[in-house]
Amino acid sequence: MSVSELFKRTIGASGGGGKTFGVRSDLLERFGQTLSRDLRAKIGFSVVLLFGLAAVFAPMLAPYDPMAQEYGVLMAPDLTSAHPLGTDSFGRDLLARLMFGARISLAVGLGAVTFGAVLGILIGLVSGYYGGYVDDVLMRAVDVMWAFPWLLIAIMLVAIFGQGFWNVMVAVGFAYIDDFARLARGEVLSIREEEYTMAAKSVGLGDREIIFEEVFPNTVAPLIVQFTVFTARAILAESTLSFLGLGVKPTTPTWGALLGQGRGFITQAWWISIVPGIAIMVTVLGINLFGDALRDAFDVKETGET
Amino acid sequence: MRRYVAKRVAHAAVVIYIVATIVFFAVRAIPGDPARVLLGGDASAEAIAALREDMGLTEPLYVQYFRWVSRIFQGDLGTSVFSDQSVLQMLMGVAEPTLSIAGLGMVIALLIAIPAGITSAVKRYQWEDYVATGVSFLGISMPGFWIGIVLLMVFADQLGVVPAFGYVSFRQGIIPWLEHIALPALAVGLPYGGILMRMTRSSMMEVLNEDYMRTARAKGLNGRLILFKHGLQNALIPIVTIAGILLGVLLGGVVAVEIVFGIQGLGRLLIASIERRDFPVIQGAVIVISFVFVFMNLFVDIMYTSINPRIKYGGGD
Amino acid sequence: MSSSLPPNANAQQESNATASPTDGGDDPLLVVEDLHTTFSTDRGEVPAVDGVSFAIEEGEVFGVVGESGSGKSVTALSLLGLADGARVEADRVSFRDEDLLAKDERGLRAIRGNDISMIFQDPMSSLNPVMTVGEQIAEVVRHHNDIGESRSLFAELRRKYVTGTSESSASWERAVELLETVGIPDPGDRAHEYPHQLSGGMKQRVMIAQALAGDPDLIIADEPTTALDVTIEAQILNELLDLRDEFGVSIMLITHDLAVVRETCDRVAVMYAGELMETADAGTLFDDPRHPYTRGLINSIPRTDDDREWLDAIEGNVPDPTAKPSGCPFSDRCGAAFSLCGEPLVGYPAGKSGHRTWCHLYNDAVSRDGDEIDHVDEMKAKQHIEEYAAAADGVPYRPDFGSEYA
């Protein structure tokens, strides 16, 4: 399969390879198989790819400068001629703004979850593997994080550190640290007593080798599923922040911000807020479909955290 | 049982205390001087200094902290810098619409999710399942505030069946109250319901495969009895936990939905206070929201022990 | 789907008018003739039960023995329409004078738990974790006896979620009585406990009490002791035998353990890959096992007088059910395999009545010394096989059985 080959090549370097005691050598294969067989995965992946490409090549593909104002066509509903998706209240082309908006929304979404995943998985691995005192302290910290509803964390962080791409990314991603930590810890606890971990220990591997070469690779499947599902949620979260005016920057076109700007004009120009909403919905739906297919492929149980 | 609850309450109190402390220092880290914000750009330096003195901002941070903590224990969340009102009173004033929306949203979510999830599991891979799963997928893929905008457009703007903006207290009549919160509650409830429906489906499917369900059939019981007497409670056990975890999603949704519907709630107050650097209100709002969140989850945990006889009360975590 | 039979399915099986293998005058309690249970999977049709015939007499303990995957559990589930997703076909499945094949789900429900009840392998997972054991027994009492307690959905749900089952209700009292019958101490208190509060052996006793609650004529016990400690195993088996003596209930005991069969059963059917290999009285089976597979099984039991250095294990594995060898499914593992093994299997009767062996070694046209073949008259042998197989023809075939429960 060409798609699975592609994935093997891109991901293979970090996650692949048969470990002596590991049991996950079939993971990448299943990943590729899912992509080539499962309809949900195909649809989801295509949608994400489409939006991803539109975002990456927006400067080349966009029909207009997203900031260019054209006072002749304020809130143009014209779905045929010069502005295929119409214009906003300043006469800016919505399609162009949507494509540039995709850059922020997708990048923040992916970046936020990556941030949350890296920190969370580290905490979870260490906590689960060492147990005892370390586990107690780390898990209490995670408990406290969990007591903040995600939007509060994000609002506070943006208020403290100010708006901006990286700040919003961290603000959104912060909320996922505790979920990743719990999941990783749970996986480690169930794997720690497995025979291959015992085997690794009995041949004298050190703690760090065992965590990163034996335990972590075996927690990968549920973490990938969680990562996918959370990316969808992070895009929703970013759009909420932007909508509230706490996103990247009020003037930057992002999906949530477009939506927020259109809100005041629903009666005159409904498409200004409906079109970005549909873009969010289709993207998130695509990621969710893909995640669902992966969940089935990796046989990961659906829990509240994922 | 009582020991278990006491232990959990103590645990929750500690969490809230830590949250409050973090919030206190975090809020002080927000750039911008509240005195300057309050007096406007062209205020004189003396006036700002006087106000800072007045607001207690000149004292060392730890003094401010201890004063603040001791007040909190007396139930005093401070006074708004902006409006001179007591924070507690301000929060009480806006809590009703927020809680109404969240509460009705939760009810809507559960009313949709549980029957749909069960139907979906029982009729798996038939059209009922595909419809329910498809709708829930849509639900979890739309931002709540956008659902709100669409609902507003269709039901308030075009059809005119409900009012578009504002909030009316239930004390002024249940019907007007419901009319005003119906759309916001739907907007927060649908995404939440989508997640819960998927959980119910997978949980029920697992239960349907359990040995005890086969035992129930071998006993000659009829299908509905097996489903509702033997299956339902087992399927709901994980759902209760998840419903609690997802409260954060619901609360986050309410904030944005309040903005869409122009409702003066907790979320709106919080956003406005951040813009005005109104420290006491921000602190108070965050503490109250965390408080509600933690205690709702505590309540959910206690419910969990009552529907799952396998949990022993003394055990704790 | 089920309108046509595989071309050799009828011929493959011996199923004749003498399905009742004992010479008692009464009709057997349960008669099964040529039962086929087939699962459709991605990998093709899986014939989990492939033409099985047997009969169970009143008050007898009938053992069905075989390795895991031999189709013994599926056989039991098929009888009650509980083999989910399977296509069940048979020439005849009759219980007393009732035709189980003709019953719809509703009709079967009246049989399940009432006339035929089941005990499952794992009592930990087979009891509902969120219901008291008393209620789990009491509901069977209510549903299969007219004791004037409402059994509507509403009444049952109210009982479960609101009021609980009244201690003075007839069903609860009967449940406590049954717990006492199966040897649970303090049955009045124990009835209020949840399954997780009981030990494994206790739970299996609860399962037995539950199986007794509808006053059944037949209890199907599917590996009732496999999940239990050896010490508990004997207690549970004795309990079952006592109940047979006390209430005259018949027991179909499904097990992989020949030692259990020797201790408890009156008659035995040996199954392999969904087909019968040998049926006989328990005594006969152990004294004079004729099928090479049965002999293999018996030789693999450890004995106290053992001077063998190794137990005699049967080489190889149960065949993939989607790709069984034609003719005898055991032929590829059998030390005595010979030229006729690819022919359709038929059951050859032995000296003692009811002793029957599905192995072509016992074809009259085969002259042999033990398992050593001297000479095979192929023509004559095949003629014999056809004669035996012909006895199965002319029996009405019911293609739809089971589809309505799928």
Quaternary: heterotrimer
Q: Kindly state the percentage of residues in helix of chain C.
A: 25-40%
By DSSP, the count of extended strands of chain C is 15
Shape of chain C from CA axes?
elongated
Uncertain spans of chain B, ≥5 residues at pLDDT below 50?
313-317
Largest interface: A-B, 44 and 51 residues
**Count, helices of chain C:** 14
Which strand order spans the largest sheet of chain C, edge to edge or round the barrel?
7-8-9-3-10-11-13-12
Summed up, the helix count of chain B is 13
Mean pLDDT of chain C: 81
CATH topology of the largest domain in chain B, anyone?
Answer: MetI-like fold
Largest sheet: number of strands, sense, barrel closure of chain B: none
Distance N terminus to C terminus of chain C?
A: 13 Å
Class by alpha and beta content of chain C: alpha/beta
Short summary:
Chain B has 317 residues and is mainly alpha-helical. Chain B is 77% helix and 0% strand.
Model description:
- The complex is a heterotrimer of chains A (306), B (317) and C (406).
- With 306 residues, chain A is mainly alpha-helical.
- Chain A has a domain of 209 residues: MetI-like fold (Orthogonal Bundle).
- Helix content of chain A is 72%, strand content 0%.
- Chain A is elongated and about 75 Å long.
- The N terminus of chain A is likely disordered.
- Chain B starts with a helix and ends in a 10-residue tail after the last helix.
- The radius of gyration of chain B is 24 Å and the shape is globular.
- Chain B has 13 helices and no strands.
- With 406 residues, chain C is α/β, with parallel strands linked by helices.
- An 8-stranded mixed β-sheet of chain C has the order 7-8-9-3-10-11-13-12, sandwiched between helices. In chain C, strands 1, 2, 4, 5 and 6 form a 5-stranded antiparallel β-sheet that branches.
- The N terminus and C terminus of chain C are likely disordered.
- Chains in contact: A-B, B-C.
- At the A-B interface, helix 6, helix 7, helix 11, helix 12 and helix 13 of A face helix 1, helix 6, helix 7, helix 8 and helix 10 of B.
